Amino acid sequence: MTILSKESKETHKKENYNERMSKTGRPVSPHVTIYSFPITALTSITNRATGVALSVGALGVASLELLNGSGATMALMQDINASSGAVVTGAAKFTVAFPLVYHYLGGVRHLAWDNFPDMLTNVDVVKASYALVGGSVLLSAGLACV
Q1: CB-based contacts of 81: which residues, under 8 Å, 6+ apart?
Q2: In this structure, are residues 33 and 79 in contact, taking their beta carbons and an 8 Å threshold?
Q3: CB 43, CB 103: distance < 8 Å
Q4: What distances in angstroms separate CA 95 from CA 57, 99, 141, one per listed residue?
Q5: How far apart are CA 133 and CA 55, in angstroms?
Q6: Residues 10-58: pLDDT tens digits?
Q7: What single DSSP character describes residue 85?
Q8: How many CB atoms neighbour CB 103 within 10 A?
Q9: SS3 45
Q10: What are phi and psi of 116, to 5 degrees?
Q11: Quick one: CA dihedral 51, 132, 129, 32, positive or negative?
Q12: pTM, whole model, 2 decimals?
């Protein structure tokens, strides 16, 4: 804790944060909009987002089935497939496959880290993050083509 004299305390109150920092000569911390998130943070955030997307999707499927009867979701998917081209159908399949594959592989990655803590180094975590993203995109694209 810094103890200020009465004079410096009054000066401190009068100056704003930027004025005080410019006197120290230290740079001000960068704003979050220009900060480059590390890949590990992005994959962690994406894992949480895909978990939410899966929950919302499950709620939607359950609601559709409860309101319209058994098989309503399958009928909807067949209607989408019949009324639209292969591009729209493939995009719809990828939209469903990606959160499932990504969240599953993210869980496998964490399970590996829990059981093999030697793999939890900065370099290995970055490699695993890139592998997670790449593997998820490739597997999801493959599933979308089926």
Answers
A1: 89
A2: no
A3: no
A4: 11, 7, 10
A5: 20
A6: 776 777 777 777 777 776 666 666 777 899 999 999 999 999 999 999 9
A7: -
A8: 20
A9: helix
A10: -130, 80
A11: negative
A12: 0.74
Long-range contacts of 128-135 (CB under 8 A, 24+ apart): 129/39, 129/40, 129/42, 129/43, 130/39, 132/43, 132/102, 132/105, 132/106, 133/39, 133/43, 133/46, 135/105
Q: What number of residues does the chain have?
A: 146
CA dist., res. 1 & res. 18, Å (int): 20
Q: Could you give the CA distance from residue 100 to residue 35 in angstroms, rounded to a whole number?
A: 29
CA atoms within 13 A of residue 95's CA, in its CB half-sphere = 9
CB 65 within 8 A of CB 72: yes
Structure tokens at 39: 């890949």
